[in-house]
Fold this protein.
Amino acid sequence: MKILITGGSSGLGKSLVEELSKDKKNHVFFTYNLSEKSALTICKEHKNTSKIRCDFNDETQLNIFIKNLKKINLDVLINNYYSWPENPLLPGTFLNQHFHKIDEKIFIEEFQKNIIPTVKITQEVIKLFRIKKSGKILTTLTSFLESPTIGSSVYLSNKNYLKSLCDIWAIENKKYNITSHYFSPSFMITEYTSKMDDRLINQMINSKNEGGIMTVNHVSKKISNFLSEDTLIESNEIRL
């Protein structure tokens, strides 16, 4: 399979690239922006991977990237991209201010930054999948959609939007043998989340619907199994 993972040089994305590339029948393409060193290391250690540098918030770069997608002849798209500020407490991060304190511009800016690139990429991929009459779309959401935490309105509103799109992609493209699924990891310790305040981390670990910390390796293995088994499931959700 030819697989594209957006945001694949760190965190869960990196784990997905490494896990899916273990199957030598796969060729895994992944996008990155600033993590050049990590991207080079991945490609050095996994010969059936290819890195694609693109700043999704640069319209010119994004349009060139989308135009070149037809050259890859993808079988699977994994929408994993989400842009995080370096400081976990800045606007647009997972946990921020209470809803009533957030400037409305933040909602618009974060939607433009994080959702529009995924929308544009998926639109193009669906067009290509329709031509070949097959394809799989997987999208990373979050278990916090079921158990919202204080200060997560910007992040969760974006993820909820993607969840609705996932369902629509499945309905609109079923007759073309195109599937759309999503998976919703619970809180994971990554290079980014490790910078958060310990009190916030404990809040998420101890939230009533969380089963503790989920590892990126656990999630990536589940996704790899799902793709390799080619299992048909009635729900659009891949249970982790």
